[in-house]
Amino acid sequence: MTIDQIMREHWSEIMETKIKPVIYLASPYSHPEKEVMEENFEKVSQIAADLTSEGYIVFSPITYGHTLLQFREMPGDWPFWASFCFSLLVKADNLIVCDTIEGWDKSRGVDEEMSFARDHGIKIEFLSKLFVKKTKQNTQR
Fold it and tell me: Is residue 127 part of a domain?
């Protein structure tokens, strides 16, 4: 059975599960120091895990790519991963910029992901602002 056949056969079940919007996390990664790259990976992975545990559908290209690099030697830089990232970002409903991770504002990848999102009508939000909104909502209850 092909994936198309499975989708057609189970479409009503899939829709009943209330498909949610997909969030793409943009975060810095590349750095001359490997320790900083590892820290960036850990920070964004924690953010992705936190959001996922709250029921959000989240994709972190850094979490995914960093993990793949442990299994196969390949470039870890933006030029190699740009096409991969854009191919997934175009399917996302929201781009959340992890502006709580140092270097986000100097990251070529984050900058290009934000430009791509703007060009394709994908809503851009900043993690620090979402946290403030959520905190305000919680205190108003």
Answer: yes
